[in-house]
Records
---
Amino acid sequence: MNKGKGFTKSFVVDRSPEEVFAAVNDVRGWWSKEIEGKTDRLGARFVFRYKKLHRSTHEITEFVPGKKVVWHIADAEIHFVKDKSEWDGTDVVFEIEKNGKGTKLTFTHVGLVPRVECYGDCSGAWGFHLGSLQKLITTGKGEPNEKES
């Protein structure tokens, strides 16, 4: 389901497209250590959980080494908004391209648009996690959510 273009953020790093691609697929290294399932191949499914606030199931529907990764959100529950299924049917897209001496990563959560209730909180969270991804790419260490004890 395409609910409009969505939240987009880009950055450029002095790494190769292959290094950026590898970091994107190291989801536990930048997003959350609470991920269950495979995150590094076409057709893989994984589940993200954050406390009792958010759970989402992602299926990797595009996987083009050094160029693109797409996660289709098959099912989600966001507990801090009225419509708990706002993310259902949306897509998370990572596009990677050479940019001068570096590599540009463009992130788009297709369907996460200002008219949905979680836009402010969710786009803010994505901003934080994309900063973590950028740190993983440039320093080898991201800042993922820790596992709950």
---
Amino acid sequence: MAASDASRPSRHVLCVDDDEAARYLLGRALERAGFVVTQASGAREGLELLQRFRFSLVISDYRMPDGTGTWMLKQATAAGLLEGTEVLLFTGSTNIEGGAADLKIVSKEGGTDNIVSQVLKLLGPAPQVGQQGLPAPSLPEAPVARIELLLYTAGRSPASMRALRQMKKVLAGYEPAQVDFQVIDLAEGRPASAEEDHILLTPTLVRRSPRPRTWVVGDLEDTTLISDLLEHSGVERRQ
């Protein structure tokens, strides 16, 4: 059933990508930047969501098994589903078929931060409450991050992908604004944080804060360890 206009959240982004890990990481980054994110695993699922809901922005991978992002956007445009909606296509390909002249394209090579920066350019930062010269209305205090977690991976190795899936499964049950979760892919280079965290093996999950710093090495098959770290750090479960 389609949602009414009144029930659709503002700054609502549709993220379409068949790569589950990439889609999840981009979704988390967009949520931290103040956006509400709906995810689709392919072009056809993305089109179905566009038929049901309105979005501030559609951000899509180009090449997916069930169709290209431009195919999805062409169908949505023909049906009048993208009026007032910004569109951003991200890809590693230099050959875009059927793309409109004004189609905004960003390279995957810049990583998630580059894509988020492009989204912020299109939609702007999260609006501030209140107007200049007027007191802001009283609002409930926003939740703050209570735990900082870094997952060190090695590209798309089976163990790294299992660890990421386990993290995704567990974090889905907790308040996302209270968890600062980042993935560091050592296949793309070894940042200073890896030296600070004394990373020798991958995958390794590190709780950086609250102290003491804690390490969990392996594919995180036992998700009880992750839940214990979250709950001992005071992270609240989703209502």
---
Amino acid sequence: MTRTIVRLLPADEQALLKAYIEGSSEPAEAAAIYDTLEISAGATPPRLAIAVAQILLHHVQGTLPQWASVSGGTVNVNRQEHKHHKDARLAFNPKLVCTINWADSGPGFSWPEAYHVTYLPGFDKFVITASRDGPDVWGCADHAIGVADGSQSPVEAARQAITDFWRMQLNEWEQCRWVGLFAEGLIDARTANVWADEVWCSSEEDTDEEEEM
């Protein structure tokens, strides 16, 4: 990493980002760092992927999906504020790719998921993250879903990670295609649907071919 990044990034966070990007072993003190960041050990994604997302998205967490209700004059929120290293001085610049809506389970009950791509200077890598309005589905509100080389464009980097993430859900538990877009970012609704077609339409074609054989 460059001297500037080393100076601005706490050693703990630097070690976690390095482990995730390189696919290497977590630092020996990882469990203590996760506890400090209040990252649950019972979530579906690895704690490392959750920690990386919290580090990268910390300064934009107020813009991430949030579910709230009012009861007796009290506002209840589903997403809790990220904990952050007290010495962290580097504000990353996540770019919103798009925010989808997986489904509507009732009036006022949607299932949004926002995707961001963040360039990590010094590492020359992009990290792609997925964010929801709370921990209901994955046991966490945010987690990293992929890494891409910094020589790509942000959209190219995001495309592979996001479509792989969707395809994993389709293959593992037959996840239905999402129903709509809440927000455009680096891509518009047309492009988001093209990406979805790559996952769900190609799967239907494979099924049809198997039935014909």
